[in-house]
Write a structure and sequence with these properties.
The chain is an alpha/beta fold. Helix content is about 35%, strand content about 15%. It contains 13 helices and twelve strands.
């Protein structure tokens, strides 16, 4: 008789887009262990969202210890917790170090750490989309026997639990028949400027969409407020929500949007998971085959995003969502 698994640890540390995609695997882990107490080991930026999630009973945020003292504290706590199984969805050298730190009595471990009980040995894993890779890992662990692992076959994350827990809202003022809105995410990692479509292009796109009957709402971190102000020079009535949206609210805004447009960033992954038509822009700095969001999504890619014309993005917008009153621009 198989030993009952009562305590489970899931490890997912970063980055934001990958964290959002990992909710698909977390849902399967919860379904496989409905009565288990499941703890997520992550990092502080994801704590609030993870605590809303029905797949986890507890959330711990010290998954990236700094220095020997923090490292020993983390390993000591995990050893004392006596987990029956660990699903390492990070599968990095850092997370594998946790496995080795728990030796010689490490729990059943699903991941890539040398010597773990439930290894993911697929030689193609580094060339698989995150969703198929996680599905294949859970298949190897024995909890998802019919996991879809062919390219493009695994379902995206289900974030309907966010929508149920958050109040409905409209980010822009409207009358009896408010205008539909486009959610724009023009920012991204400060150290990866090559992953950003130029803000001037966003401004031109915003003007075209506004003239076609859409309101414009801009999201991002506080450091991206300058991008919002630049877009507002083209569309004075564009609403700037940079620095004022937590992750749950981004999902809500995405769910109500007529269209989402943004760079390959975590907020776009989260908004897309809520179901709206989404255009995500990739440069050669990242590979959509490995990490693009799934759903009602159009992926546009150029080696250099500065060379992507606004007309191409407008064409994708027309194909994805109805324009108000059938108008075009």
């Amino acid at each position: 008789m198989a030993r009952e698994i009562k305590k489970v640890l899931v490890i997912k540390l970063s980055a934001m887009g990958d964290f959002i995609l990992a909710f698909a695997a977390a849902k399967k882990i919860r379904e496989a262990h409905p009565r288990a107490r499941i703890t997520l080991l992550t990092t502080p930026p994801f704590e609030a969202l993870a605590k809303l999630c029905p797949y986890f009973n507890e959330v711990e945020t010290d998954g990236r210890p700094e220095g020997l003292t923090q490292w020993l504290t983390l390993v000591g706590r995990l050893r004392q917790a006596r987990y029956d199984r660990v699903y390492d969805l990070q599968t990095s050298s850092r997370s594998s170090m946790i496995f080795h730190g728990l030796q010689p009595f490490a729990p059943e471990w699903s991941g890539v750490a040398l010597g773990c009980a439930l290894p993911h040995r697929n030689s193609r894993r580094d060339r698989m989309h995150t969703l198929e890779r996680h599905a294949d890992q859970l298949k190897a662990a024995g909890i998802w026997p019919d996991a879809p692992t062919e390219p493009g076959s695994a379902p995206g994350p289900d974030v309907s639990w966010i929508l149920r827990k958050m109040p409905a809202e409209r980010p822009v003022a409207g009358g009896i028949q408010p205008r539909p809105y486009v959610l724009m995410a023009p920012g991204g990692s400060a150290h990866r400027p090559e992953k950003r479509w130029p803000v001037e292009a966003y401004g031109q796109l915003a003007r075209n969409l506004y003239d076609a009957g859409f309101d414009i709402v801009i999201i991002g971190g506080p450091q991206e407020s300058a991008l919002a102000r630049a877009i507002q020079k083209d569309v004075g009535k564009a609403r700037d929500l940079t620095g004022r949206t937590d992750l749950a609210r981004i999902a809500m805004l995405g769910a109500k949007a007529a269209l989402v447009v943004g760079n390959d960033t975590g907020p776009v992954h989260l908004a897309a998971a809520a179901g709206p038509p989404t255009i995500v822009l990739f440069s050669k700095a990242s590979d959509p085959i490995l990490s693009a969001p799934r759903g009602h999504v159009a992926v546009l890619q150029a080696d250099d995003l500065a060379e992507m014309p606004v007309a191409q993005v407008m064409q994708a917008a027309r194909a994805l969502t109805p324009f108000p009153g059938g108008r075009d621009a």
